[in-house]
C-alpha cells in the first residue's frame, strides 16, 4: 500500500497521515508500506540527509532509530488505466520502482517531522524514557501525575456524556495541567470514531523541553472493527498510522481519472474475490435507512435500527444494525484520528456460530440501498456488504470466516468513485 497520507477517497485500511494546527506535519509509514507516492518530482523519500525515524517500544522506553535505506515493500500495488480507448499508449501507466523503509524488525512504524513556515523541532535518535511507570489503559476518569524535564504535570482524560450518563464515543481527550493553571491539550477528541481500547504507550518529551506544549506522546487505539491506529504527537502536530491486522486487499477506481489501484499484501493467503457471489441476501432501502437514522439521532441514545437473519446451509447469520451516538467535530476544532468521513454512527454487527463482532461503521446512504449477501468463498462462509454513503462513491466489502480465530476476517474493501 502506498503512502499518500489518507487517500482523498478514504479508501486506505493501511494508511498514514498527519494533521497540524500549525506548520509542522508528521508523515508516517508502517513496516512494508510502499513509499512510492511520496517520491514526487523524482525526490528520494529515503536519504541519510533527512532520515526517517523508526519507533520501537523497549519496555516503557521509546527508542528511535534512523532509517536511511529502503527495501522491497510487503504491499504490492498494481496500477491500471481504465480508459476505454483502444490505444495502448492511452492505457499505459508509467511504471515506478516500489520501495519501503528498511526498519528494524520490531519497529511499530517510522516517521519524519517536517516544518514549513517554521523550523521543525529537532527529534534525536536514541532511547527516550517515559514519564509513565507502565502503559496506561485510558478510560473516561483516568488521571495521573508525571514529571518531564523537571516540570510537574497532572495528566487526565476529559469526555462528553450522553443523556444516559455514558461516555459519548469519540469524545475522549487527554489534557495536561500544571499547579500554576497552565493547560495543554495533548490529544484532541477522535470525532466520529468508536474504539474498544485506547492505550497511552508512552509520555515524555522527544525534544528535551517541557514548556507549553512540550509533552509528546504515543497512543495505540483499537477500533471496534479491529483496525489498530497509532497516534504520535510531537509539539502541536499529530501523525497517524492505521494498520489492518487482517491485511485485506484494497481496490480503488476513479471514473473521471480513468485510474484503478489494487493493493495486496504478500502475507495475504486468499485472492481478491472476483466473480459471482451470494446464496442469500437482504436489502434495506435508502429511504428506510435514512429515516431510521434520523429518528435515532433525535433521541441521542443508542437504538436498534434493523435486525435481519440469513440462512447459509445449516448455519444462520444474524445482522444487527444499530445507532450509536458519536462525537461530531465542531467549527475550528482539531481531531486526533484518521477517520475517513465515510464512517458514521451506525454499527453493523454479525452473530455467527456463537460469536458476535462489529463489521463496519456506516453513515446515511446517498444513491443506493444497503445490501448484505452471504455465501461461500474457498469453502468458507463469507459476507459481502455494498452501499453508497455518497452519490459519487460506492463501497463493497468482503469478509471470510476464519475458523481458527472464530471470527470473520476482512478480505477486501473496494471503492468506486465517479469523479
Structure at a glance:
This protein is mainly beta and 419 residues long.
Give a written overview of the molecule.
- There is one protein chain.
- The protein folds into 2 domains: 154 residues, no CATH class; 149 residues, no CATH class.
- Helices cover 4% and strands 46% of the residues.
- The N terminus is likely disordered.
- The radius of gyration is 22 Å and the shape is globular.
- It is built from 2 helices and 31 strands.
- The strands form 7 sheets. The protein has an 8-stranded mixed beta sheet. Strands 1-20-19-18-17-12 form a 6-stranded antiparallel beta sheet, with no helix packed on it. Strands 3-9-4-5-11 form a 5-stranded antiparallel beta sheet, with no helix packed on it.
- It is mainly β and 419 residues long.
- Strand 26 and strand 27 form a beta hairpin.
